[in-house]
Design a protein that fits this description.
Radius of gyration of chain A: 35 Å
Oligomer: heterodimer
Number of helices of chain A: 5
Shape of chain B: globular
Helix content of chain A: 10-25%
Number of strands of chain A: 34
Strand content of chain A: 25-35%
Strand content of chain B: under 5%
Distance between the termini of chain B: 70 Å
Amino acid sequence: MTMNIENKLTLSRNVAVVSGIFCLAVSFLLLLNYWQVSRFDPLESKAMEVLVERLSENPDDDALKNDIRNMDLLARKAYFNSHWQIRTGSYLLLFGAVLFAFALRMYHSLKSKIEVPEPHGEDELQARLLSQKWILISGAAVLILALAGSHASVNHLTSFGTGKPGESLPVTKAEENIEVIEVGGEPVLQSGDSLLAADGSAADDSIGMLAGDDESPRSTTTPAGEMSLPATSGAETTVNFVFPEAGTLRAHYPAFRGAFGNGISAHKNVPVDFDGPSGKNILWKVNVPLAGNNSPVIWGDRLFLSGANAQKREIYCYDRYGGKLLWTASASDIPGSPPTSPKTTDDTGLAAPSVTTDGNCVYAIFGNGDLLAVDYNGKRMWARNLGMPDNHYGHSSSLLAWKNKLYVQYDTNKGRKLLALNVQTGEMLWETNRNVKISWASPIMANIGGKYQVILSADPLVAGYDAETGKQLWSASVLSGEVGSSPAYGEGLVFAANEYARLVAINPSGGQVVWEQDEYLPEVASPVVSGGLLFVATSYGVLACYDAKTGEKLWEHDGGTGYYSSPVVADGKLIIFDTEGKMQAFALAREKNLVSESALGVKVVTTPAFANNRMFVRTGNALWCIGSK
Amino acid sequence: MNKGSKIATRFLLVLLLMFTLVTGMYGQQQRFPKPEFESGYAQPHTLTPEPRSTAMEWLDVAVLTAVMALSAWFVLRKRSRQGILWLSVFTLFYFGFYRDGCICAVGSLQNVALSFADPSYAISVTVLLFFLLPLIFSLFFGRVFCGAACPLGVIQDLIIVKPISMPSWLRKTLGLIPYIYLALALLFAATGSDFLVCRYDPFVGIFRMDAPFLMTILGVAFLLTGLFIGRPYCRFLCPYGVLLNWTSTVSKWHLTITPAHCIRCKLCTTSCPFDAIDRPTDPKVIKGSRDGAKRFLVYALLIPVWMAAGGFVGFKAHIRLSKANPDVYLAELLITHPEVKKDRDNIDVQTFLSSAKTMDQLVEEARGIRRKFKYGSTAAGAFIGLVIGMTLLNQVIFRRNEDYVPNNGACFSCGRCMDFCPVERKS
């Protein structure tokens, strides 16, 4: 049916009117939706904030958790509903607008006649004069307004650096008289080094039998050698530093995985038969004020650990006999400390690195870069901030102290270094830059060829550094991925491993790989070597035993539950906790011999600490003491 | 090996390859063991969307080139307004709604500016071509890009209903804005502060069907204005149009209203919605222009004064302008209001505090950016002064014109005027 122009005009006019009204209606609805959402954003509900705050005060309130979940579900429904409305409305508006524009064009096109040309155009001279006038006015107006606007602006950047508050200290750089060693990755051998004894065993200190340290409560005997008590009270605390020898360190449990971080405890009669739920052989269990994934350390009758949340970072000292919290030292008011803590993952947290002690002080580092040293009574000796570590999980490398140095493995996304600080003053003695990627492993120390080395694991290097000077002595490019497992030393070899990489035994004389394996690889737990046996625990529940010299797999145990806690050797046994809190004790033997299995009944990701007849386990917010009465 | 076994072998090899790829991908995605949910929740597979393939970017360049070539053909050879119209519709859907209005030639000038100023910024070849190709076409064929290939232009062009002719003084005055916008866009892009053209693109929200409230209002306002004032963004804002104006002014070929010669019938005078048709020069105007020689001299001598004034204002304004840079703004905020460090809702401050950057480093970076602004805004101010001076000067320069011709610089080569001319094309 052909339409005449009149009909087409009518049709296009009507379509334009209807679509125009439609567009107006949809626009109105969209505006209404916008107004509604801007006033009551379902994702910014005050009621939800109140509930979440209440939950943080009562974390075990299940009814409250349910309420929050329901409210959250309603908020999400409202949010996505609103989005759907906007989206649908937008498409409807677009469709309506297209129709409107098309109909309007058709209407005007049909209505338009051949226009009579203008008899004369605008007077060009007059038009140009007017243009000049307005260009002059507007040009001047633009410049004047710009000038006026610029007068009101102040350059605040010039006032920075004049001592005003708000300026924070720079990231610690090399201080004066401090040697910064750049390491390119090549091993440096010292002439005359003999890194292996004639019989092939490591030429390091042997673990001797220890004296003292019986378990009578409140014993006043102190381990042989050192430990001067600090001065009591007074504004200035002084400690007469006496640096313990290796044997003395091993008499205590002064660091993550024991003395030198090697996973071997010299303590005797370590309890392996207990039951957490029933309390069998659980001597005491106390709450730790702030949670943390660091492991306890022990010196004499004191047990130390740390905890942190986004607002507070603290060191705790417990009487290891009765479990009483003796003091709390707070890492607050530290110059350079950032006002907000970095984001960390839940399984790392802000107190992942374990504290360490040398009998003089207790040293702690936290995920925001705060480093704190307190004396035996919890009085601050020194504190500093190393700069906020750029670490996407959270800083987790534990500390080690030996002689006058506190060693910090500071491998972050923005820089990788080994630092040595003066234990008495916190002054940086040296820092060694490392040619590696970020790492979550902790340092260990070993006496190799008569010289102490600090051995670190990262991607790609496992490397040994002179404990005195920080110079890299050797390295092996053997690892990849995100390294969380610390190295181990024994049988003259350094052992390192990482999931998706390999397990390697390295000769520390030149960094050569002696053997390697890739069947069972740890993700978090660190290997341990003792009596010619190397133990590796995986996060999927396999504990494997290898011949340390050859790499031959001797036996494996598939517990089914992953291991995050590191296996440690104590009292002739290999002791390990799985993530469900089940402890397994194996004989140190080439055949698998499960000596004992006990359950703590709670999740365990930390590594236990030992004293004679005692084992101490930290589980998040709790500290357990295991032993027979 | 018989045919059947060959097929079976190939099939198995393909399966093995697919299996390897899939498990490889899975291995890469599932880096760590899954957490064990107590409720039995099964974690879905992580999907990573692929980035748009580079081949598709080259396809965009090819489509742009084809559209401009077709537009030139429609304008210069076929003289078909219908062709331009349908090409515009295609551009609206392809470069507008399908490609979401990005990348576009208008914004690409910022990428080019940044690549000159920042050696670490690598501009992609396709973006560079998006910048260069319309200019090259304009040098030869006029603003065929504006006519049918620019999504921002065609969306305004397609909704023109009853265009009003604007008085020339208003056109000339508003015509200063694109130059100011160009200067500021280049300044902000070169200092790495912002891509102004993209941020204040009124139509990109419509193309993406998603925009903040104010941007939506701005886009709709432009479109409603465009019902009556032809292409308001193109004529009075588009910074890229400044460059196209310059190249089109000297183009080798250009759209002509008449296919042969002009008979001065004036039928085309009302055809252009953009007031882009130059009329034959009135002899009285030519006579009157001789009296304006003094004015010409004054305006010519004033050009350095305008430039100096503009440069001075630009220099003075550099502190204010540099505050638009996020790093400068953050540094000054932390200096003047250190208590903002406690504000957990301020994402910029919290991100900075969580980073390993120190205040010293931030302030040093901010100072460097402010120095760049000092030189850049002085140059921008001098450029704006030059534009004001030259625009004034142009008002006293009279070009002898015999026919009704499109203004080469301002004409968008839309082809509307061609249909109004009664002159037949010579065979």
